[in-house]
Task: structure prediction
Amino acid sequence: MAELPGFELRDLDDAPRAFPAAKPSLICFVKEDCETCNLAAPVLEAFAKTYGEAANIWMISQTRDGSLVLKDRHGLTLPILDDSDLKISFAYGFDIVPALYWCPDGRTPDTQCEGFVKTEWQGVDRDMASTLNCTATAIDWDTLPDWRPGCGSKHLDPEILDRLMADAEDSPIRARKIEIASADDVAEFMFDQGFSDGLPLVPPTPERVMRMLSGTSRSPKEVIAQMPPNMGEASIEKIAINAVMAGCKPEYLPVVIAAIEAICTDAFNVHGVMATTMGASPVIVVNGPIRERLGMNSGLMALGTGNRANATIGRAVRLAVRNIGGAKPGGTDRSTLGSPMKFTMCFAEREGRSPWAPLHVERGFKATDSVVTVFAMTSGPVHIVDQESRAPDEIAGTLGLGLESMFLPKYHMMPVDALLVVCPEHIDTLMRDGEYDKDRLRDRIQDVTRRPLRDMVADEVSGAGMTRAAAAKLDDAQLDNLVPKFAKREHIHIVVAGSDAGKFSSAYHGWVTGPMGSQSVSRKIEET
Amino acid sequence: MTVILDPTDEAVPVSRQITPRSGQVSGVVGLMDIRKPRGDVLLDELERLLGERMPDIEVRRYAKPTFTKPCPDDLRAQMKAECDFVVEGLAD
Result:
């Protein structure tokens, strides 16, 4: 057998006890509240009385208070060593206490056993007697049970194990550790460091980050993107740290990772999205089976508050952009006004209430895939209210007129994306006479927003739009040309969300769409 | 003590907040002896020099019970309440 890990632990008199040792050594890890450990304690004491001169007979206790309790309860005189920080228990790697190791050479175990198996312990007694040339211990073995299972070692408690793994030499944790003095307030410290979006953060302790990393099988060291504007390395570990701060559960992490992969593409261009004075931010739509598994909200209040997954996934992405990418307000985030979407904006599509293929299927994924789609949006959700329309073309017309407000009603032929979120009651009206596909809705939106080009010319009401000089070069026929809101119908993205009651759809208005600005991006969520 | 992991790209050192520096010394200056050997000698000399060069300031002396342990909370609170500046003699 291999040599056991070395240690130096203190006994109850605060004297150091080191292993490997010059003498043959028997060490036994125990936990005070374990019944089997209490069964074993008098046996160990008997071993100590018999062999204590020639060998180290040490009990290693996993709790500080428990050492004294065991000593008093059993009248122990053998050395009781303190491993209350559990690092040695972790290094030994056993599962069950009592965990017994007999090392005749003081370093390599000849026998090791977990729990209490009488024949094994008797065997150890005989080995010690023969190795040390002593008479075997005077124990009435018949009074002891043949077998007792023992208890789970304390170092395997989930909270403790996460900390031990984070601290271990081969820990996946690579991020800089920041020590916060006990007199300092952790929440205030994180505000002072500029980590926050203005709301309180969950402290990203190594334990929490380890738990977060359990949400993915990807290596914590894997760098998935160089995140603009600072081109910071977005490793899985750094993303997990920001996900902890945002309040995510570990199972949300794959969605956060996929969303960050999506925004860090050249197509999405998060640099420009953050830097623009117009104030854009990623709007994240989640499709596929993962919505259900994470309990995401696609129904009542889907675009609002109250759902942890919706709120914290969007927030984690934004915090990562802030902390890893370095996009901070006044730095490279330069919005004139900003918007609440800069805190978080993530929701699930209500696929079961939609008459259409869900967004991800429309974009080429399988229905069984889970997918995030990110849109760079400058405003929204902007409501489109219609409680009166009863015919499909009427409600489609309303949605068009609502979208005409994007940026400025006067602007038309816009090469800019919009994300239309149609509520179930509007869907019902739209579908009342049968199929009404998305392209028909898009065409209807374009049709009802067609206006003569002359309406777009700067005038005394609004100086925005086509310049008077440009308009002067056009003849009347050209100025009478009707132009729709969007340059192409493909700029109109459509999803379904919301509760069954209420005739209120909503829309997000885009930023600069295209290679010079931002294009929407979908990424499959890797769930492993 | 709490340990957290740095969420940033670690391009800049972690900053600790310090009180803005006014560029002037006025009001009450506390001299804190942490009880390391000869700390009092240093602070006596400092008090003499401050008295000579800045006669308008008031100097108050404080001492920790022992250098081996953190400053007691009430002493820290007292200094915070009474002083505009504190000079602490560290090490020997």
Residues 28-89 of chain B form one domain. The interface with chain A takes residues 1-11, 14-15, 17 of chain B (CB under 8 Å).
